[in-house]
Recover the amino acids of this structure.
């Protein structure tokens, strides 16, 4: 996502950008993504808002409930979008990749090319790939996620920290009967969360988390059997959503986090997205911050020639670091609050949520998204 968005951003900034992808095919499987208002604003700057919104679904509200179904609050995403200046969109990963890819010239996309190393030669960067081939460019951007090949070459092989819980995500191909239109939901239990939302064409994407040891497996019965047992007593439509999901499409992922270094890169090399700032998923800002990074990168490199590209990259990092760090900290705080396990603390948390006015929630989230957007020029 970050690489394809950056390709468009750099093209608009006057650069000839190429995307090198280690997978043999540029595609995405799995569930959905929340593209919040701050990321939609970045897509608007790049001329990508319309195809992404058309491929997904604008979500009007998010209901928050306890595992028994008691409503703990509602966040009006319509009002939030009005304050921030753009809608909040839910979309499948595959549809987002397709929308972003359609804006990148096919000749600039190179699948099946895994980076092995790079070296700077003063006025250029030489990237060496695992097949022994080389490419020369003015700059190199690592948009290669949690398992980035570029990051350890810059900062050493420091692995991300396990956040203490794992996640599952999937896709119900048919929305359960009675599900309110354009409405998502989050349910907070004891040490577990379940979230879902419509992503267009009648489909519902979902995700759930659970405190667990790192590296766990679901066993021969599969993920859905485990989740149906753990969440079977939770309120509707959670059991129905799981029942409408194909086991083969469920993805389990341990959750990790890693704060961004103060200087993301050096010389003619930098990072964007999870390669730079890996955060937990509760606020849906991982993909959003990658998109905002890409737009900011293009803006900082507009008018910059090869000679002053390193200076432009440091400017990009300085402008992006506070935004990404804030999103990471807020996501971690939200995760800790949502995944409390003590019955007494969960009861107190739920009481606090029920008593929190909707206007306070709107103000808090709008402040976060506004500070997580592109800074003023």
């Amino acid at each position: 996502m970050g690489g394809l968005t950056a390709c468009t951003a750099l093209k608009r900034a006057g650069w000839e950008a190429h995307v090198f992808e280690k997978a043999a095919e540029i595609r995405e499987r799995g569930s959905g993504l929340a593209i919040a208002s701050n990321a939609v604003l970045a897509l608007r700057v790049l001329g990508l808002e319309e195809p992404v919104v058309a491929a997904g679904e604008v979500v009007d509200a998010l209901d928050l409930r306890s595992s028994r179904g008691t409503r703990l609050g509602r966040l009006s995403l319509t009002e939030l979008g009005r304050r921030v200046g753009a809608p909040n969109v839910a979309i499948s990963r595959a549809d987002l990749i397709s929308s972003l890819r359609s804006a990148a010239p096919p000749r600039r996309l190179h699948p099946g090319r895994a980076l092995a190393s790079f070296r700077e030669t003063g006025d250029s960067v030489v990237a060496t790939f695992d097949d022994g081939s080389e490419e020369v460019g003015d700059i190199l951007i690592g948009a290669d996620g949690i398992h980035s090949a570029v990051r350890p070459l810059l900062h050493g092989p420091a692995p991300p920290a396990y956040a203490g819980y794992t996640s599952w995500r999937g896709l119900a191909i048919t929305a359960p009967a009675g599900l309110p239109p354009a409405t998502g939901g989050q349910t907070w239990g004891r040490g577990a969360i379940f979230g879902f939302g419509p992503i267009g064409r009648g489909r519902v994407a979902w995700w759930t988390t659970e405190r667990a040891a790192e590296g766990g497996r679901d066993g021969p019965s599969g993920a859905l059997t485990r989740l149906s047992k753990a969440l079977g007593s939770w309120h509707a439509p959670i059991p129905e959503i799981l029942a409408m999901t194909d086991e083969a499409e469920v993805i389990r992922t341990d959750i990790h986090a890693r704060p961004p270094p103060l200087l993301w890169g050096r010389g003619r090399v930098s990072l964007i997205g999870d390669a730079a700032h890996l955060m937990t998923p509760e606020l849906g800002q991982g993909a959003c911050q990658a998109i905002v990074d890409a737009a900011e990168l293009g803006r900082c490199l507009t008018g910059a020639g090869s000679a002053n590209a390193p200076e432009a990259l440091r400017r990009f990092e300085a402008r992006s670091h506070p935004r990404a760090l804030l999103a990471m900290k807020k996501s971690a705080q939200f995760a800790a609050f949502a995944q409390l396990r003590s019955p007494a603390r969960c009861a107190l948390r739920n009481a606090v949520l029920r008593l929190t006015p909707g206007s306070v929630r709107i103000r808090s989230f709008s402040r976060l998204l506004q500070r997580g957007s592109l800074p003023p020029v």
Summary: Residues 172 and 241 are 6 Å apart (CA to CA).
